[in-house]
Amino acid sequence: MPSQRKKRTLILFLVSALLLIPTGLLFTTPGRLLILNWNEAQWQRQALRHYRYTFKNVSFANANANALYEVVIEVDDDQTLSMTRKSDGTAVSMALFQDYNTIPKLFQKLHSMVEHNPRTYIAQYQPQTGIPVYVNIDFSSTTTDDGYVLTVTDFQVLSEADQ
Questions:
Q1: What integer pLDDT is reported at residue 9 of this predicted model?
Q2: Dist CA 71 CA 111 (whole Å)
Q3: Residue 121, exposed/middle/buried by CB under 10 A (0-12, 13-18, 19+)?
Q4: Each residue of 46-95: pLDDT tens digit?
Q5: Local structure of residue 97 (DSSP, 8 states)
Q6: What angle do CA 162, 100, 34 make, to 5 degrees?
Q7: Which of 45, 93, 137, 138 has a CA 20 to 30 Å removed from the CA of 36?
């Protein structure tokens, strides 16, 4: 019986260690970049050319982008084909979302944000594609309105016939 107890203790210790080491790393810029790079590579491996997604930018720093709520973005061969409000389908100025109007541009923007060492950076990625589906970023505890919450939902791979 003592050997089973030792085994359980050892397993509990190893599991705890495996959980704690990455958690500490997650809160550093190199750790955040490591995870971001891994997910970006996952996206690149998919080699998806034609897709559509819904993007939402709740930015306290950009009132114009925040006022549009969710936009549906369609992309083919890294070119944005259309950008419309999800609520009513009306066209949206592409300039308002130029940093987010393709998944590669979204990754570029996230790299830039992480490299500025935000106070808070919480990200969730879609496991199969690597797409960032939820990102919460806050740069300073003393500055109001410098945070972002970015979401990607309703991601669809489209065929050429869907154009």
A1: 60
A2: 22
A3: buried
A4: 999 999 999 998 876 555 555 557 999 999 999 999 999 999 999 998 88
A5: G
A6: 110
A7: 93
3-state helix, strand, coil in the chain (%, to 5): 40, 30, 30
Sort 43 into a burial class: Cβ within 10 Å, 0-12 / 13-18 / 19+. buried
Give the pLDDT score at 79. 94
Q: What's the farthest any 2 CA atoms get from each other in the chain? A: 69
CA atoms of 154 and 52, how far apart (whole Å) = 8
For residue 20, name the pLDDT band (cuts at 50, 70, 90): very low
Which secondary-structure segment (H or E) carries 34?
helix 29-46
Q: What per-residue confidence (pLDDT) applies to 11?
A: 67
3-state secondary structure of 42: helix
Residues 129 and 155: beta-carbon distance below 8 Å: yes
Closest alpha carbon to 54 in 66, 67, 37, 72: 72
